[in-house]
Design goal:
The complex is a heterodimer of chains A (241) and B (136). By secondary structure, chain A is of the alpha/beta class. Chain A has 11 helices and 10 strands. Chain A has a domain of 164 residues: P-loop containing nucleotide triphosphate hydrolases (Rossmann fold), CATH 3.40.50.300. In chain A, 38% of the residues lie in helices and 21% in strands. In chain A, strand 9, helix 7 and strand 10 form a beta-alpha-beta unit. The longest helix of chain A is centred in the middle third of the chain and has 16 residues. The two termini of chain A are 23 Å apart. With 136 residues, chain B is of the alpha+beta class. Chain B has 2 domains: 81 residues, hypothetical protein PF0899 fold (2-Layer Sandwich); 52 residues, no CATH class. In chain B, 36% of the residues lie in helices and 26% in strands. In chain B, strand 1, helix 2 and strand 2 form a beta-alpha-beta unit. The chains are: A alpha/beta (241), B alpha+beta (136). At the A-B interface, helix 4 of A face helix 1, helix 3 and helix 4 of B.
Chain lengths: 241, 136
């Protein structure tokens, strides 16, 4: 796979799953071979956003992720169904490693990874096991959210992780807070998605999701990815070129 | 087939050890397979017997002994220790297959028989390991 984009932010409820799912949709619309991996093992929801019925995947020398709207989707939900999957630390790591090991992604241009909230096992495992991962950080202008996202950015920059940029979600009014946070860490501010009341009704219906104002805005934010679909930018080159 | 992939992994690990220790011949390999892996022992043994000689002549007459390690659990909530049985066991082919592929999904389908908690430690029966290698 050419690029791995992990959608993170640290805080729960800020729209990581929505952005992961619709980013995969937007990339796939452009004809890019796209995979979507839901790493929120205890609360998977990408399948809900995309209206994907969970189904036990087929196995042939590995697991073939079910394909939906040309997106290859892998989620623990395909195996656990409606059963809750409560997992402690080491179990998260082991389950993550199993999913990564058994899934046959094929030749992808992009693998989008929906990261769980927090800076726990999944984030640490993505950093150590998937060294080419680039992080797309989601934030809102809420002071509570900014507090956690700032810590996420601090950890990622200390570890010299690749950062695609910061996306502001659920914007209700013009606020420089998220843009300022991106500037504080010298990472690109990719843009903002508006608070979009039509999203709830569109959830589960890809054709309705695709025409929401939020997804329209995400297409603009994601343009930096289209421009460099072939691989991450060389170190030192401006991401806004 | 999961059994074949695991057989290849066992062979790779055994050869790595063999190279590190400078063994020219491997007489016996003991493989321990956790019950949660849901590996079919006879298929796994067959896969090892087919893969080994094809990969490495040193393994052509290696004796393989496969032991299934029973799953054992310790409930963190009430302290009860339990195993896979009719009461606690997996129901249906899909649950068995799910745990075979991702053993941590035991927490999705199993419950402590005493307090019904999913918060248990898997004390034994997870993973595949090489218990012993004899060679010279």
């Amino acid at each position: 796979m050419k690029r791995i984009i992990a959608v993170t932010g640290g805080k729960g409820g800020i729209g990581k799953s929505l952005i992961s799912s619709t980013l995969a949709l937007v990339l796939s619309e452009r004809g890019l071979r796209t995979g979507l991996l839901d790493l929120d093992l205890t609360g998977p929801s990408d399948h809900v956003f995309l209206g994907l019925e969970t189904c036990f995947p087929s196995e042939h020398f590995g697991i073939d992720p079910p394909t939906h709207h040309d997106i290859h989707c892998m989620s623990i939900a395909h195996f656990a169904g409606k059963s809750p999957s409560p997992l402690r630390g080491e179990d998260v790591t082991n389950a993550l490693i199993e999913l990564l090991a058994i899934t046959r992604w094929g030749d992808l241009d992009f693998l989008v990874i929906d990261m769980p909230p927090g800076l726990g096992d999944a984030t640490l495992d993505a950093l150590r096991l998937l060294r080419r991962t680039e992080f797309l950080v989601v934030a809102t202008s809420s002071r509570v959210v900014l507090e956690t996202v700032r810590k996420t950015l601090r950890l990622l920059t200390e570890l010299r992780a690749g950062i695609v940029g910061v996306v502001e979600n659920m914007r209700r009014e013009d606020s420089p807070a998220v843009q300022g946070l991106a500037r504080e860490f010298d990472v690109p501010f990719l843009g903002a998605l508006p608070f979009d009341e039509t999203l709830e009704g569109a959830t589960g219906d890809v054709s309705r999701l695709a025409v929401t104002p939020a997804v329209a805005a995400l297409r603009r934010c994601a343009s930096v990815l289209f421009a460099r679909a072939q691989g991450p930018r060389p170190v030192g080159e401006s991401p806004c070129a | 087939m999961h059994e074949l992939a695991l057989a290849e992994a066992v062979v790779t690990a055994a050869l790595k050890f063999s190279d590190r220790e400078g063994l020219s011949e491997l007489a016996r390999i003991e493989v321990r397979v956790g019950e949660l892996q849901g590996i079919r022992k006879e298929i796994f043994e067959f896969a090892l017997a087919e893969v080994m000689p094809a990969v490495e002549p040193r393994l052509a007459s290696t004796e393989i002994h496969v032991e299934i390690e029973p799953a054992r659990f310790h409930c963190r909530s009430c302290g009860v220790r339990f195993s896979l049985n009719e009461e606690t066991g997996l129901r249906g082919a899909e649950e068995v297959e799910a745990v075979h592929l991702v053993p941590e999904l035991a927490h999705a389908f199993l419950r402590c028989p005493a307090c019904r908690s999913p918060d248990f430690e898997v004390v034994a029966g997870r993973g595949v390991s090489i218990g012993a290698i004899e060679g010279r």
